[in-house]
Amino acid sequence: MSSRLRKITVNVPADALEAAVRVTGKGITSTIVEGLHELARRSKRSALRALRGKMRFELDLEESRR
C-alpha cells in the first residue's frame, strides 16, 4: 500500500459492497483498495492488448537458457 492516503466518502449500493466484501473476505477498505488496483491492472492489460500485432518479438529459448 502507498504511504500517501486519502480519506474519501463515497455512496455505493449496499448490495454491491456486501457482495464484494464477501468475495474478497476482507474489510470494506481493503475491498475498495483491491477493486481500485484491479481497475488499474485491467487498464494496463487493455493497453498491452492494443499493442498486439504492432511489435515484432523473437525469442530463442535455447539461447536464453544459456
Q: What does this entry look like structurally?
A:
The protein has three helices and no strands. With 66 residues, the chain is mainly alpha-helical. It has one domain. Helix 1 packs across helix 2. The longest helix is centred in the middle third of the chain and has 23 residues. The radius of gyration is 19 Å and the shape is elongated. The two termini are 37 Å apart.
Brief account:
The protein has 66 residues and is mainly alpha-helical.
Number of domains: 1
Distance between the termini: 37 Å
- Based on CA atoms alone, the radius of gyration comes out at 19 Å
Protein structure class: mainly alpha
Q: What is the residue-averaged pLDDT? A: 92
Q: How much beta, percentage-wise?
A: under 5%
Low-confidence stretches: none
Which helices and strands, and how do they pair?
Elements lengths: L13 H11 L3 H23 L10 H4 L2
Helix pairs in contact: 1-2
Jot down its keywords.
single chain, 66 residues, mainly alpha
